Structures
1.
Amino acid sequence: MSLGNISVSYIDILCKTLKKLGHSEQQLLETFGVNRATLTSPNARVSIPKYMRMGNYCIGETKAPWFGLEMGKQTSLTHLGLAGLAALSAPNLKVACDCLTKYELLNTYNVRGKTSFCFDSQQAVMSFYSIKPYNEFNHFIIDLVLSGWNNAIATVTGRDNLVAQVCFEFAPPSYADYYRKYFDCEVLFSQPCNQLVLKKGAIDCQGLSACGTTFTMLERLAIAELDIVQVGLSFERKVSRAISPLLVGGTPALEQVAEQLNMAPWTVRRRLIDEGVSYQQVLNDTRCDMAKTYARDTALSLGEIAYLLGFGSATAFQRAFKRWTGLAPGGYRHQSRL
């Protein structure tokens, strides 16, 4: 199982940010085997682990741990594909934010979760899922997303004063002072979730480039593309995707997964049986596939992987891993990297 993938348009953001900070992107592309043809391919993707390695390579080259914040500033709505273009032509900020989250899957997929946009009469919030445990290796991902959203809101409305608060799950990093440069609002760390809170009434702001006919056309295209992306998935695969983000810190029950799929538990159970599998089988297979991928493609400790897969201890995880593969996770990691 892949931990997720992301459009190569995000590599273009890395390149633009390197240039902005006075560095050439050529060495980055050569180091990670990315050619110019790949960068112009609309369907080309890069794995999440590889993208994280590329981002950290850039941080090392520029000596700028705030690289992700600058990436967000260098992100244009065109980098976000149909989701970004639909947002740019949307009638107001509410519809634009909805497009950015609703059509996210067209540009990026992560087993850890998906972004969301929620609003009521008092508050509107864009939220990014947790990617704990946090370290210097993945801070830049959260920085990129929230800084990018902040930039997108200003682009859509022509106003840079619509964000009331930005929240980060992780503790203040070594470069905490730099957040003031990128966010003209309250910035909080060690919060329950990663989110951007809009000021009251902000979602009603009209889009600067709003165009009804263009928006309708782009939304139709986005809906059609989303259907194509999802239609090829078996129901077992859809259940597995729903399980993945719920594993962190515990084992999800069928009822939790059914809620994510907006189905009754008995319907989920019946449809899985129709495909010849049980919920427990899908849960075990999902854990096994993710365990092998985490061990092979990341530098996470065994304790961290155990937590991400819902095991009570590293010992319990190691026993399960050996049962699945015949190898201890450390041995599997070493063997896969030879």
2.
Amino acid sequence: MSNRLGAIEFRHLRYFTAVAEARSFRAAAQQLHVSQPPLTRQVQQLEELLGVVLLERQPRGVELTAAGAVFLDEARNLLALAEQALDRTQMAAQGQLGRLDVGVFGSAVFDAIPRVIQAFRTAYPKVEVVLHNLDRAGQIKALRERRLTVGFNRFFVEEPDLVWDVVLAEALNVALPAGHRLTDHARLTIADLSGEAMVVYPRSPRPGFIDQVLGLFHRRHLTAQVVQEVDDVVTAVALVSSGFGLTIVSDSALNLRLPGVVYRPLERNEALIDLCMIRRIDDDSPLLRAFIEVAREVLPPPPEVHVAAR
């Protein structure tokens, strides 16, 4: 059976299906735009390979035998699977099919990253997008192990086998307890925060956002009065809600609406914080290219000049 199966071609299946559905060699030949004798020979060859009669020739056309009726269903299934295979292969080549593993971390999960993911899912609904909550070191390790396609994070440094691009530069804001005297200001400066109780984050990895915040004070020869270091922005804003102190957040974190918290922007010239997209330098897959294109369409281009630390 294996030798016979290897000799059967898709042409045999298409020709037989056309004849069986048209109930006529002549009509099938017209539909297929071939002459009738080659069509007849192909169907006869198929019957010989299978060792069964598929069609009974009648004066007014052809009729399926019992074996022919079964084979017609199977031939249709095989042709449909072949068509599906071609379609899926072409979609994969165009970045419209497959799996995309995306690393996420930090405050960008509250705004920028969800907007990119949603836009990509809308544009490429047949691509499976899987999110992985990994810090910067975890993303770099996962990329090198090919467990991750692309990562979003901040403060990347040069890596020989990886490439990263700044896709968004966000302004910084101050989260204050409601009723704090600084809520009377429309905008704040780092000098306004000198001497105020500060909650900073994250404790790791370093360098990170915590170092940028402290650097804002140091560059101005001011002192940050740190009362607590925590692991993430959610915990920091929760402590602000309880009146524990102030904290500095990016624009994305403004979506954290906790009771008793008021946000005020820092002056635009104080600092911007970069959101980076990192990937393997040798990954030129259509799927990744499609994702990068969507990300750049969704996120506003970063300004030419910014002072975010890396």
